[in-house]
Amino acid sequence: xxxxxxxxxxxxxxxxxxxxxxxxxxxxxxxxxxxxxxxxxxxxxxxxxxxxxxxxxxxxxxxxxxxxxxxxxxxxxxxxxxxxxxxxxxxxxxxxxxxxxxxxxxxxxxxxxxxxxxxxxxxxxxxxxxxxxxxxxxxxxxxxxxxxxxxxxxxxxxxxxxxxxxxxxxxxxxxxxxxxxxxxxxxxxxxxxxxxxxxxxxxxxxxxxxxxxxxxxxxxxxxxxxxxxxxxxxxxxxxxxxxxxxxxxxxxxxxxxxxxxxxxxxxxxxxxxxxxxxx
Length: 279
Known about the structure:
InterPro entries: AAA+_ATPase (IPR003593), ABC_transporter-like_ATP-bd (IPR003439), ABC_transporter-like_CS (IPR017871), P-loop_NTPase (IPR027417), PstB-like (IPR005670). The chain is an alpha/beta fold.
């Protein structure tokens, strides 16, 4: 991938984008924090994504929907370079974070993932205490000042503090599934990322736990850019501001305001998918 005009570090890019964010927010125009340009991904001979052009706005919830195997999770994993871990993956085109190509030679993937957190389909707490789970990323970054306050704030933002404040030394594995997922969210936001990626974060949870996660996502969008992959179209309609529809073959067919996608899509193929005629 091209690293033309890439800045030396992700952290520098974040700092330089602050004034731009403030200026555009004052005009009511959300800037694109993530942008893909002609993005292609292949796993060996299999084409997973083809020529994806997509601009994800800052401090919004963007849902990515589509049938199984259409490339939704592949696109999500490209954003923070999780596909680097797949030997067969070949990536072409550009994927920009705050204007910098994340695949540029100067970019440290580990530093990138500190700015772009991820929550997976199944809760994956570490076999440590609740406290140590949240503190883990902070310690990795040598952030040790005000640790108790930072852990508490992350748990509060994840709507979990009131449930666990008296049992922080308890194993995270003893929590319910919904609590574990909110703990994973707390762990992700403790290091104060810019973007939070979520890959089917509620698919393994019961309806009550799912509702709590959805409420939390809407709250988190006040501070973070949230990108969520979901098979649940009703969920996308409830919580997202923008929706991208990927269809079979790794094609982005339509991207627009969520209400427009669900009520008056431009593409007949999207309408057929939304109404259940295929997919």
